[in-house]
Amino acid sequence: MTIKEAERITGLSRSNIRFYEKEKLISPERNKNNGYREYSEEDIKIIQKIVYLRTLGISVEDIRRLSNKEAALYDVVKKQRQHLEEELSELENAKTMCEKMLSSGEKIDYENLEIERFVTDVKDYCSQNKNMISLDSVSFFYMWGGNFTWGVLTVICLLTAVCSFSHLPAEIPVQWSGGAVSSFVDKKFIFAFPFACMVIRFLLRPFIWRWIRINMIDSDSISDYITNYLCFIAFSVELFIILYVIGIAENVTVVLFLDTFVLIGLLVMAVYRITDTSVQGNATED
User: Fold this and answer.
1) Residues 177-208 as b or e (16 or more Cβ within 10 Å = b)
2) 3-state secondary structure of 25
């Protein structure tokens, strides 16, 4: 059957079906005469199984492991149930505390909030709820990924282009090979970098967010982080071109390597601290 028929039977969009193919969860045959995909009944059953497991919150990565027989369905579902129970417990606890505060009979005020009125042991309460505030310990992660940081990067990128434009030669380098410039373009290209920051934020970020969301990660924070990282790369290249033209810098590879090393290092530290906090929280509960 064609992809249009597969859409009708599964109720999914074409992009969803092709995504699962790209992730190697299904492998439809190709018609030798026209090269079009031909979906079998087995492909449809697999797609329906994938959709069912995704509605349970099971990640694409775990489904891939199931498909490759690297994991047992029972173990994956059991793990997901435990994860959902933890989330439900945290949400139920938060709901109970909100109801307790609202039903206190008094107008609550932040300045005069006395936690002891609602919590018996404040230290124990904070310890038991470490998972809900795990990301708070990684302030630089949020700071780098925020809209404000993106705005600052974009403005600096634009101001750098504007201030340097009159001092640039008619053509500026954009490609290097073996340490030597291999390609030049009109100096107006310097404005492509702040434009790239906007394209990255408004056009590329939704795709990054969608991919991360599908793979069950903290999509908002990490997609913002990656977006600003790409904007920072754009600014670094812009700055390097200017420094290269005036004879201060020579090798763009070094700049990109340092950017990547620092920013990926911060990302690894953030993920480690988030995971470590989560593990400590689970150990405390045990």
Assistant:
1) eeeeeeeeeebebbeebbebbeebbeebbeeb
2) coil
- Look up the pTM and report it: 0.54
Task: Please check the confidence at residue 217 and state whether its pLDDT lies above 70.
Answer: no
Q: What are the CA-CA distances from residue 131 to residues 126, 145, 167 (Å)?
A: 10, 20, 52
Tally of helices (H runs) and strands (E runs) in the chain: 12, 4
Q: State the CB neighbour count (10 A cutoff) for residue 87.
A: 13
Segment 267-271 long-range contacts (CB within 8 Å, at least 24 positions apart) = 267/141, 267/222, 267/225, 269/138, 270/138, 270/140, 270/141, 270/225
> CA-CA distance, 82 to 145, in Å (whole number)?
30
Q: What Cα–Cα distance (Å) separates residue 49 from each residue in 3, 25, 53?
A: 17, 11, 6
User: What local confidence, expressed as pLDDT, does residue 283 receive?
Assistant: 46
Chain position carrying tokens 């099971």 = 58
62, 76 Cβ separation under 8 angstroms: yes
pLDDT over 60 at 201, yes or no: yes
In this predicted model, what pLDDT tens digit does every residue of 153-195 receive, in sequence order?
A: 999 999 999 999 999 999 999 887 776 788 999 999 999 999 9
Pick the closest to residue 135 from 15, 277, 285, 26 (CA basis): 277
Do 11 and 55 form a contact (C-beta atoms < 8 A)? no
| pLDDT for the residue 135 | 52
- Three-class SS state of 161: helix
Joined tokens for residue 236? 């670094």
145 token code pair = 């990924």
In this structure, how many other beta carbons lie within 10 angstroms of the beta carbon of residue 58?
20
